[in-house]
Amino acid sequence: MLGALAWLGVWPVRAVPSGVVAGAPLPYGRPLRVKPVLVYHLDQPREKTSWRSYGGLQSPADVDRECDRIGRELEVLAGQAGFPLQIEPLTRINRDAEARAAAEADTDVLLVYGASGAQQWIEMLAASGKPTLLFVRHKSGPVYLWYEIAHWRLLRKSEDVKAEPHLDFDDVVVDEYVDVLWRLRALYGLQNARGTRMLALGGTDFYSRPARELSPAHARDVWGYEMAIVPPDDLRPRLDRVRSEAAAVREAERLADELIALPNVALETERRFVVNTFLALRVIQELMQEHRCTNLGVANCMGGLIPVLDTPPCLALSLLNDMGLTAFCHTDYTHTLPGVLLRWISNKPSFVCNSHFPHHGVLTLAHCAAPRKMNGRDFEPTTLMTHYESDYGAATKVEYRRGQLITCLIPNLRCTKWFGFRARIVDSPNFAMCRSQMDIAIEGDWQALTREMEGFHTVVCYGDYLAEVGYALKRVGGIEWKNYSPAAA
To answer: What's the pTM value of the predicted model, to 2 decimals?
Structure first.
C-alpha cells in the first residue's frame, strides 16, 4: 500500500512542534459487572449402555479444580482488561433452580462456562435479557461437551439453520480469553454510551435533512439519549459574568499560558483567543454539570457562536475531549452516536472529521477541533491556529503520528448503516482546509468503500476496534454494519 502512495511526493515542510507530552489517562466509565457461571452435569455409570457424554468434568473433584481454574483465569483477565471489570463470584449450575437464580441475578453480563449439562439451562440464561457469552474449552483445560454441540444443538436446535433467538455465533468463544475480552470491551463501551445526555450549545444544528428528520428519534429510542438545549441568549449573560470576574480572567490567562508554554505546542494565532477559549470553557463546564451532560454539541459553530464566544469553539471542543468528555462540531446525532461509542470502547478520544474522496487507497480527513490526547494519555504535538473557514480565533492543528493504526467509522445520514475500516496515517499535511489533517491508507477494499459510502463525517480513534464496534451494534439492533477491512491476523 505504501508503495502505491509514492505519487504523493514530498510537501513543503512547516516548522512544527515535535514530541509528545505525557498526560493522565482518560477517566473510566461505570464498571461492567460480569457474572461467571459453570454449567455441568456429572454422569452416573450404567451397565451395558452408553452413559457418558463428552466432557472432562467427571467427578466432584474435577468440578472443584475447574472452578479454581476459572477463578485464576478471570483474575488475570480483569488485570489485562484496560477498563473496569467487576468479576462477581462464580456460580455452579447443576439443576433448574440454580439456572433460574443465575438468570435473575443483578448483573450486566453472564459469562457461561458450558462444560456439560442440560440445554435448557443455557437457554434459560441466554433468555435472561442480559448479554450472554458461552465459553467452551478445546485445549485450554478439560474439554467441554458444548464445544461439540453448541453450534448444531444449541444455536441450530439440531437443524440446518440458526434457531436460537438469544445467542449468536459471535457469542461463543473457544479457549481464548482475548476473544472474551474484546467482547466485554464492546459491552462496556455500549453500556457507557447508552443514555448519554447532550448539551446543545446554541441550539440544534443538524448537518443534513435526513439527520434533522430521523436522528433525534433514533438517538432517543434506540440509544436512550437526551438533549438539553442552551440557546445563545442564555449563554451571553453567563459569559459576561465570567468576563467581569477578575479571578476568572486570571485563571483563564494562567491556563492559556500553561498550554502555550508546553514544549510541543506552537502558537500561530493571538494569545487572547486562547484566553477567550478558557473563559468559554469555564461556562461550558458549568452548563454541562448543571444539565448532567457528558457530551457537547455546538450549533452554528462556523458563524453564530463566534461573536458570542469571541473565538470559534474548536479549541474548547479539543480540550473537552482530552478531559474524557465527548464534544463535536454540530449538534448532530448521526456522528455523535459513533463518536461517543468509540470513546468508551477505546478509552481514547474520538475525532469527528470531514471525509474526502477516496482514491488510490488514500482518504483525507480534516477538522479544526481535533483532540491532542489521541492515544488516551499523551498529548500529540499541536499548533494553535485560527479556525480555517473564519480565519479567526483558536483551533488545533494536531500533528498525527505517521504509521499509527486507526479505526474509522462513517455513519450514514439516516442512522441505518455504519461503514467501518482500519487505516494507517501516512501524512499529517497542511492543505488549505480544516486545520487538523491526516492522509490515511485504507486497509481493505477502498474501491467498494468509494462506491458504497454514505454519510459525510468520519469518526476516528487510535487503535483497531472494528470487532468491538460490530459486536456492540449487534446488541443495538436495527443498524447495518459494513466492515471493509479483513480481520487482523
So the answer is: 0.94
